Amino acid sequence: MYQSESEKKTRVLRFIWGSFPWFIVIILILSLFILIGNIREKSARLEEEKRNAVKAETSVQVVTLTLQPARLEETLNLPAAVESFENLWVKSEASGLVTNILVKEGQMVQKGQVLVELDQRDYTANLERIEASHKLVTIEYNRISELFKRNIAAASEVDKLEAQLKDLEVQLKAARLALERTRITAPISGRLNEIETKIGDWMTYDKPVAQILQIGEVKVTVGIPESDVSAVTDLKEADIIIDALDKMKVKGKKYFLSRQPGDLARLYNLELVVDNPEGRILPGMFARVQIVKKRFEDTLAVPLYAVISQDEENFVYIENNGRAEKRIVELGILEGWMVQVKSGLAAGDRVIIVGHRLAGEGQAVQVMKNVTDASEILKS
Questions:
Q1: What does the CA dihedral 208, 209, 215, 221 come to, rounded to 10 degrees?
Q2: pTM listed for this prediction
């Protein structure tokens, strides 16, 4: 019993003594890893301190913008199409051979002006026949009326002739109207855009003859998204840019806003009327409509490119006593390439707008130029 316990102790001592070198190796390895980690951390810290020291000592050349309160507008810029104020197809109200075309495509026509003439011979002959019958019945009616006054003719004969006379008068009106309709006239004034017939064509009732456009005023139709309908409800006018006419800008007056969307895109059609006395704006041209949604007076704005976004925050650098100072800003609306700054800056601050991405907090900066209008740097 005593021997067995002694053997166990001996084996444990031998195991510990045999494993001791490995424990030493493990401890040395762990110590080495810790030492390497400490060295790397210290090196990184020294490198960062070195960079900061170099940055603080090296001046970055910058351009600054002195902030001044200004007006800023939130606008909608939407595509639109130009339409004629009136687009009318003139149709024939009579049948016949086209004998004369009195106008040319592209010319201005006045209301009531004759555009096309049809062969009138059949209509004239019919009118003359009815006129002859009317004259004959009138003579007979007058003769029988005199006899009736003398109690020689019967009242029934007078009534019969009177009925015939009224019927012929109706036929006369219809024949004169039919003859008049062989001269197809313009129902409105405008520009003759197209003639659909030629001499020798057989014209039938309701066949298109010519197209007349009214373009002294034109309509510009733009689709308004559902989310922006409230912005145009009380709209009086808007700026319209015609790209095809060297980006000509004109004013459009509100004419009509539809009360329901016109398509699956849920766009509400807004029609604007534009004066077009020279006729330069043509139907079918594309346009862009600029509608002011909100207007901010005396607000601050900086170029969008001057704002740095990092770690879910927006900030700019300002120049303060020759050093770059970081300012976290809250942004608002965007107008062109300028963005509204709702908080974080004040009037008079000098925002770094060129060289800001080379700067850092506390960086020494050298102001090469200061402007009060960001567009001035484009002229440099």
A1: 10
A2: 0.61
Sole residue written with tokens 């006369």: 172
Confidence of residue 34 (pLDDT cuts 50, 70, 90): confident
> What backbone torsions phi and psi does residue 371 show, to the nearest 5 degrees?
-125, 160
What residue ranges in 92-155 does DSSP mark as E strands? 96-101, 108-109, 114-118
Q: What is the rounded distance in angstroms from the CA atom of residue 317 to the CA atom of residue 55? A: 15
> Tens digits of per-residue pLDDT, 188-221?
999 999 999 999 999 999 999 999 999 999 999 9
Mean pLDDT on 238-252: 93
Q: For residue 252, what are the contacts with CB-CB under 8 A and spacing of at least 6?
A: 220, 237, 238, 239, 240, 272, 273, 274, 289
Compute how many other C-beta atoms are within 10 angstroms of the C-beta atom of residue 374. Answer: 20
Which residues are within 8 A (CB) of 328 and not within 5 positions of it... i.e. 6 or more apart?
Answer: 313, 314, 315, 344
In a domain, 356, yes or no: yes
Domain that includes residue 238, residue range = 76-83+213-293
How far apart CA 355 and CA 368 sit, in angstroms, is 10
The last residue of a domain, from among 293, 325, 353:
293
Which of 181, 201, 222 represents a domain boundary (last residue)?
181
